[in-house]
Amino acid sequence: MKMTEKEQFETINVFGTGNPNEAFSQYFTGNSFLNPLTNPQETAVFLANVTFEPGCRNNWHIHHAKSGGGQILICTAGEGWYKEEHKPPVSLTAGMVVTIPAGVKHWHGAKKDSWFSHIAIEVPGEDPSNEWCEPVSDEEYSKLAEE
């Protein structure tokens, strides 16, 4: 369900918006927020609720690992986009799960007219790393078909 008003969105964003995602802001177009759900010092799996304001998206990026690794997104509120390189975009809504293998160049974020949240899960792997690539251009983003 599209959510244009932040106050209305907050009532359904059950994992909480958290704080401005300042540590990674250089890898986002628009404002994002981060609410860690697990402590990486206490568990091998890090989970965080990531919230995107309307139109916000992260840069193209790749999760690397010698084995295992990758990312899982569990969509929890609002509407967003997921896009893998050389594949059509996927319209995201609450309840959807996206499995992203290591080595796949992709991006994800909110639709232009909706707040969006997902839980991001870093899949454990051998020597995992994240490579941030170029931003998603306004031209490329504006070409996404609204559903």
TrEMBL record:
Domain (Cupin type-2): residue spans on this chain: 50-113
InterPro entries (alphabetical): Cupin_2, HNL-like_cupin, RmlC-like_jellyroll, RmlC_Cupin_sf
Pfam families to which the protein is assigned, alphabetical: Cupin_2
Gene3D superfamilies: Jelly Rolls
Top-rank lineage group of the source organism: Bacteria
Renumbered residue ranges of the record's region Disordered: 127-147
Protein name according to UniProt: Cupin domain-containing protein
